[in-house]
Amino acid sequence: MPAMAGLLLIAHAPLASALKAVAQHAFADSGVPLQALDVEPDTSFEDIEAQARSLLQRLGVEEALVLTDVFGATPCNVAQRLGDAQRVRVIAGVNVPMLWRALCYAAEPLEALAARAVAGATQGVLQLPMPHNSVS
Questions:
Q1: Residue 134 has pLDDT above 70, yes or no
Q2: Which domains does the chain have, with CATH numbers?
């Protein structure tokens, strides 16, 4: 059985820390290595990348899934510099269902874990019907 993957959240402040708090609230005993990097607007790209690489190392795992908020934005651009397709996968568009799915399946191979995380994200977005008795 492969070793558990770690998770690194990189997002605009304070989203990464908030997602980490939600993860720890719902899965306090998961044992999944989890780090968060809040990207502040006045931090240089180089400093953000250095912080991300440090957090990736602090996970202490051979494989990691990096979840970031918006494709094309600084957090995602930094995350893409970390990815190598063998040991680090990057997914943009993080949401709570994606994160929870990743926590649940962190022991799966990295490719399967990434697929499950994306499925969790898309399956977790639903337009809910309005109740019949709603008042305008």
A1: no
A2: 6-122 (3.40.50.510)
